[in-house]
TrEMBL record:
Transmembrane segments: none
Protein name: AAA family ATPase
Compositionally biased residues, Basic and acidic residues: 356-367
Keyword Hydrolase among record annotations: yes
Keyword Glycosyltransferase carried by entry: no
Biased composition (Low complexity): 710-721
Length: 790
């Protein structure tokens, strides 16, 4: 049966008939394949065909809708696009896979750049294969409306109801695919040429991770179709993140892509169990360590000080090698890779001994053509090789190096200063199995392992997420694994923290040293974080990451942001647990970001409240409540996020503001910030000069320690320039009372409280923008205008 594509004027009913016909074709293909196993030539083929037929990844599941998009081109061509392609009986494609390079190119079309696309028709579907809704975008018409109504691009994205309903869905411990709602700019990144070092910079929630993973699937379908999945590598920052993203590629049909966190990528089996001092941690990540390690490895090859003699069975003479002889052999051998050099050294040594032995044999006059050359005892040779070129494991080598000032000084040469040598020095454990290692040792062990053997697993394409934090040594480990330099690296400079926090991409690109062209893409739109939340978080940017602008947000969530001032530091934990309970009772997926110092008290508060929680720093997320440290929250997202003690997060390290920015931007829905009244971080409290005010729910504005659940549902009120609500403590401070007006009534009816709170906020805004002597006139003018309007 050959299928007729419905005309451009097709109605939903016409489209439904077509969908059904395509499904019939697909299911009959599935049946044909299922039957094929019966006629297979042998048992092995039969088993394979049978297994394939049951879960035929190239066809998709039998309840999968056949398409989600139709593209009508100016030249009259029409393409249906599905999660999987479908061909008719004549092997003509009737539905194309979203992964096809040509389709991704067309999905990159917009009203600015139509690429020959006249209309995009999106289908919302429901089980099984039923079209519920159609949304047509006629690009020329859209361009006209944009020009006439002066609509911004962000407004267009915000009004995309299909996208908005996807973004509003509740989240889970596993990241989801975005195949159906890939946006134009995202499609271009996904389909960017393979032979590049592609740098993707984007703020929180701009879709970097999602795009990078979809790009892997598209590359394996297109330019990399001839490489096997396990020649593509995806690298993330830690085990929890890896687990969070790990189902995306299998969902996209790519089962065997290698996915590793940066620690487990390294060629070593040691488990880090100590934390370095910051200066040592930074030094160990420094690319200068490459020179130091090379010198240290070369130092392990020691010329002899005295001659060695080799004895032979059945002959009385000996062969003597002088230090000079051995030095000449060493000079002949390449020292890298170390283990290969060692084997070669042994070969040349044996050959030198054999030549000398034969010479002596001839001199004895006992030699005939058939005489075997006397051989030295292998143990004697091995003992010389071991003295000159010792066999080493990377761990033994590094332990010996860091454990000896003498070795360190020699390896440091003029590369490191004496103080830096001091930073590297540490006590060597008597037994290698007892040696302790840090995270920063892993790339060094990896480097040494590869320098020793010359062998590293390489990949046709490498995707690296959260790349902005990697040390030079980690970046070099990635570079070594890249076959031709084709990589996709994604990150956000404003979220760069750790010992190698950066303000630009320059050194990352330089260290990866890809021979391929570098291409950089900046993502503009933020799809995760609600507008009010980003407005609050962006107040940190001028100091956290000067020059970086927050993404343009395309979604709003009502009552997204609440501040919870409490009386004392200890009160924060009980309040956080209350807020968590409120969200979790609504079935939301909750993340609690808490600084390390408060972790125990938070856990005690959970225990006291008899609430179960999951420690997300231990390698995975649970579906209800997750407690996570600010650093480990990077890359994750939750329906509701409770940030506890933001000031301590800011003070905890040199990039505290960035840490707080990361923590605040993990939510897809609700953000609650629990803090001690009067100690909200300055930038959040003051508001940035260029930021619009965030909104805060009256629940928190009603005063410190007020029970959040019991608060009446009131309309949101804007957060004034200073976002804290007045507290009992504030009342005592003379300057606080001068700066802000107070609501006259704190109790009373819902109506009275609404009026009081709004009045308070209007007055605060007024105090921000107008000198006090004009207030009277301004308020009279406002009252007059309201009277006119009503
Ligand atoms: N086109 C899209 N359609 C549907 N959902 C999308 C789209 N783009 C992004 N998202 C969603 O937005 C959220 C944020 O995406 P993602 O985690 O990839 O952002 P990110 O840039 O990596 O963020 P961060 O820097 O915070 O790690 C995810 O839930 C993702 O599924």
């Amino acid at each position: 049966m050959s299928l007729t594509i419905p005309a451009a004027s097709a109605t939903l009913e016409d489209e439904q008939l077509f969908f059904e016909a395509v499904r019939d074709v697909r299911e009959s293909t599935r049946e044909t394949r299922a039957l094929a196993w019966q006629s297979a030539a042998n048992g092995k083929d039969r088993a394979r065909l049978k297994a394939n037929a049951a879960t035929d990844a190239t066809l998709g599941a039998s309840d999968e809708p056949v398409a989600f998009l139709r593209l009508d081109l100016d030249d009259g061509d029409t393409y249906y696009v599905g999660e999987h392609g479908v061909s008719d009986a004549d092997n003509e494609r009737v539905v194309l896979s979203w992964k096809a390079p040509a389709i991704l190119r067309l999905r990159g079309a917009s009203h600015h750049d139509r690429r020959g696309v006249a209309r995009q028709r999106n289908y919302r579907t429901e089980p099984i294969n039923r079209i519920r809704d159609i949304d047509d975008v006629v690009l020329a018409e859209l361009a006209r409306q944009v020009a006439e109504l002066r609509t911004s691009d962000a407004q267009i994205v915000s009004s995309d109801t299909f996208l908005q309903s996807e973004l509003a869905r509740t989240r889970s411990p596993e990241m989801q695919t975005i195949v159906r709602t890939i946006q134009a700019a995202q499609a271009d990144v996904i389909a960017a040429p393979h032979d590049t070092l592609l740098v993707v910079q984007g703020g929180p929630g701009t879709g970097k991770t999602a795009i990078a993973l979809h790009r892997v699937a598209a590359l394996l379908f297109g330019p990399l179709r001839d490489v096997t999945n396990n020649e593509v590598l995806v690298v993330g920052p830690n085990a929890t993140f890896l687990k969070y993203i790990s189902r995306v590629l299998p969902e996209l049909g790519e089962e065997n892509v290698v996915q590793r966190d940066i620690g487990h990528l390294m060629a070593t089996t040691v488990t880090p169990d100590v934390v370095e001092r910051p200066a040592a941690a930074r030094l160990k990540g420094d690319a200068r360590m490459v020179e130091v390690l090379a010198r240290a490895l070369s130092d392990r090859i020691r010329p002899l000080r005295e001659s060695v003699e080799f004895t032979f069975d059945d002959v009385s003479w000996r062969v003597t090698l002088t230090p000079q002889d051995v030095a000449e052999i060493i000079d002949e051998v390449d020292r890298t890779p170390y283990a290969v050099g060692r084997a070669r050294f042994r070969e040349l040594l044996e050959s030198e001994i054999a030549t000398d032995a034969r010479r002596r044999q001839k001199a004895d006059g006992r030699w005939t053509n058939r005489s075997a050359t006397p051989r030295p005892r292998p143990t004697d040779v091995e003992s010389l090789v071991e003295r000159v070129w010792p066999q080493l494991t990377p761990a033994a080598f590094l332990r010996d190096l860091f454990g000896s000032v003498e070795r360190l000084l020699s390896a440091a040469g003029s590369t490191l200063g004496a103080d830096e040598v001091g930073l590297l020095r540490r006590q060597a454990a008597p037994k290698l199995s007892e040696q302790q290692w840090s995270k920063e040792d892993l790339p060094l062990l990896d480097h040494v392992a590869i320098e020793m053997t010359g062998e590293a697993e390489t990949y046709a394409h490498i995707v690296v997420d959260e790349v902005q934090d990697l040390s030079p040594m980690q970046l070099l480990a990635l570079r070594r694994r890249s076959r031709h330099g084709a990589m996709t690296i994604v990150g956000d400079i404003a979220q760069s923290t750790g010992h190698w926090a950066r303000d630009s991409w320059t050194d990352i690109v330089d260290l990866l040293a890809s021979p391929l062209p570098t291409r950089r893409v900046d993502l503009e739109y933020g799809y995760r974080v609600p507008r009010a939340v980003m407005e609050l978080a962006a107040r940190l940017l001028p100091e956290a990451a000067p020059g970086i602008v927050a993404p343009t947000i395309v979604r709003d969530v009502e009552n997204a942001t609440r501040l919870h001032p409490v009386g004392t530091a200890d009160d924060q934990f009980a309040r956080a647990v209350e807020v968590v309970r409120e969200h979790s009772s609504k079935g939301l997926f909750v993340g609690v970001v808490c600084p390390d110092g408060g972790r125990n008290r938070l856990e005690d508060a959970f225990r006291d409240a008899r609430i179960q929680w999951n420690d997300a720093d231990k390698g995975g997320l649970a579906s209800a409540i997750n407690v996570v440290s600010p650093g480990a929250s990077k890359g994750l997202e939750f329906d509701a996020v409770v940030v506890v003690d933001p000031e301590t997060i800011v003070q905890a390290g040199p990039h505290g503001l960035r840490m707080l920015y990361i923590a605040l931007t993990r939510t897809t829905g609700y953000l609650d910030v629990v803090h001690v009244a009067g100690s909200l971080p300055r930038l959040l409290a003051e508001g940035g000069a260029t930021q619009e005010p965030a909104r805060v729910s009256p629940t928190s504005a009603s005063g410190a320690d007020g029970p959040t659940e019991a608060a009446p549902a009131l309309p949101d009120v804007p957060v004034p320039a200073r976002t804290e609500s007045p507290t009992a403590q504030d009342e005592d401070r003379p300057d606080a009372s001068a700066a802000r007006a107070r609501p006259r009534s704190r109790g009373g009816s819902v109506r009275e409280r609404t009026v009081a709170l709004n009045a308070e906020n209007v007055l605060e805004l007024l105090a921000e923008v107008a000198p006090a002597h004009l207030w009277q006139e301004i308020l009279e003018e406002v009252a007059a205008r309201i009277a006119d309007e009503s």
